[in-house]
Write a structure and sequence with these properties.
The structure holds 2 protein chains of 2 kinds. Chain A contains 6 helices and 7 strands; from the N terminus they run ββααβββαββααα. Chain A is α/β, with parallel strands linked by helices. Chain A has a domain of 93 residues: Glutaredoxin (3-Layer(aba) Sandwich). Chain A has a 4-stranded mixed beta sheet with strand order 3-2-4-5, with helices on one face. Chain A has a two-stranded parallel ribbon with strand order 1-6. In chain A, helix 1 crosses helix 3. The longest helix of chain A has 22 residues. Chain A is elongated and about 105 Å long. The relative contact order of chain A is 0.14. Helix content of chain B is 16%, strand content 38%. Chain B is of the alpha+beta class. Chain B has a domain of 105 residues. Chain B contains 2 helices and 10 strands, in the order H-H-E-E-E-E-E-E-E-E-E-E. In chain B, strands 2-1-5-6 form a 4-stranded antiparallel beta sheet, with no helix packed on it. In chain B, strands 3-10-7-4 form a 4-stranded antiparallel beta sheet, with no helix packed on it. The chains are: A alpha/beta, B alpha+beta. Chains A and B meet through strand 6, strand 7 and helix 6 of A and helix 1, strand 2, strand 3, strand 7 and strand 8 of B.
């Protein structure tokens, strides 16, 4: 259930048989409604079958719909998909509306997608088009032709500023300021 | 202000010209104010238009979808989480394009690329629910513990095409905005 659960498979986002490239194929292949004709727990299921099932079957000619009455057992819906997944769900005491919603979920999903935790929410065959970044990507290409060792590149530029340098900077700044006052007038 | 800036430029120029210890501490990059922005020449635009016409390489785009930004190219799969009306089999165009690019050039929107210039089309291939996520909170020694389970709606999109429809620098005639 959580990420740390040992028994929940994790996987990457896939679509069966390049679905959606060129044409789209609905993935629900077969749906089986198992219910009891008399028991109260199948009440919602019976309502669904009486009111909505014919429309559902007409609107989805690609889906095979089976009904399996069985005495005094819980109602169950089993959905089978083109990728081989089998999605079993108990409909015990579920209302007509709840069953309508769950059937819609079974119709639109591409397999038992809740059985795996997705590690990434995107899948691409082309992770980089302009080339992956490297430390040299936006660097000056003059390094390519430089002959090393070179004092220009080998100089230690990580030294802290010494007191002498600080003094010299201050001196230079002072000189500049003085000259600026004179020329600004 | 101007004479201070002039002074600073002078100081940097003196240090840059004299090779010594101090020159190490002065960046070689000129300040932004004084750098000249190169004018975009017609050649660049013409080259880009030629590349678009030739379809020289694969395109990609950064699109904005339900508060998230995705880098997409042809054939990608994207999962949108949360309530989203489109149903399976629907073909949609993703209009909020923040950036479109090929191997050789990029068109960067401010914030969106000019509408009509780039078309990103997608098909919805699956709508289902995610696995059950557990939200577990506990505070030690405070008799506080909460556990929540939630499943998000997941819509899987297949990106069919990322196309630069028209030429750069030529406004499209059917501009809806």
């Amino acid at each position: 259930m959580s990420n740390s659960n040992l028994f929940l498979k994790s996987g990457f986002l896939r679509a069966p048989l390049q679905n959606g490239v060129g044409r789209f194929v609905p993935q629900l292949q077969r749906i089986v409604f198992k219910f009891c004709k008399t028991h109260g727990a199948s009440r919602g299921m019976r309502d669904f079958i009486e009111q909505d099932l014919l429309d559902f079957a007409k609107q989805n000619p690609n889906i095979v719909v089976y009904m399996k009455p069985r005495r005094h057992r819980s109602p169950v819906i089993v959905a089978e998909y083109l990728n081989g997944d089998r999605f079993w769900m108990s409909m015990h005491n579920k209302t007509h509306d709840e069953i309508t919603k769950w059937v819609e979920v079974m119709r639109t999903q591409q397999g038992d997608i809740a059985a795996t935790r997705l590690r990434k929410l995107q899948y691409t065959d082309h992770p980089s088009i302009q080339g992956p970044w490297t430390p040299f990507t936006f660097k000056d290409p003059e390094l390519n032709v430089a002959s090393l060792p070179d004092s220009k590149y080998g100089a230690n530029d990580r030294l802290p500023m010494s007191a002498t340098e600080k003094l010299r900077l201050m001196f230079e700044q002072q000189k500049l300021n003085e000259s600026d006052i004179k020329t600004a007038e | 202000m101007s004479f201070i800036r002039a002074g600073l430029q002078k100081i940097t120029s003196t240090f840059r010209s004299t090779p010594g210890i101090i020159s190490r501490y002065v960046t070689n990059l000129a300040p932004i104010e004084s750098s000249v922005v190169p004018k975009t020449t017609k050649d660049v635009i013409a080259t880009c238009n030629k590349l678009i016409e030739q379809k020289a390489s694969r395109n990609f785009a950064i699109i904005h979808l339900l508060g998230k930004q995705w880098r997409v190219t042809d054939g990608d799969l994207v999962v949108v989480e949360g309530y989203w009306p489109p149903n399976i089999g629907d073909k949609i165009t993703l209009d909020k394009v923040l950036l479109a690019a090929t191997k050789d050039f990029s068109l960067i929107g401010r914030p969106l690329v000019q509408p009509g210039l780039v078309t990103v089309t997608a098909t919805i291939i699956s709508k289902g629910l995610s696995h059950t996520r557990t939200h577990f909170k506990k505070k030690r020694r405070k008799q506080y513990m909460r556990i929540n389970f939630q499943r998000a709606e997941q819509t899987i999109l297949r990106i069919n095409s990322v196309e630069i429809a028209s030429k750069i620098n030529e406004p499209s005639k059917s501009n809806v905005f």
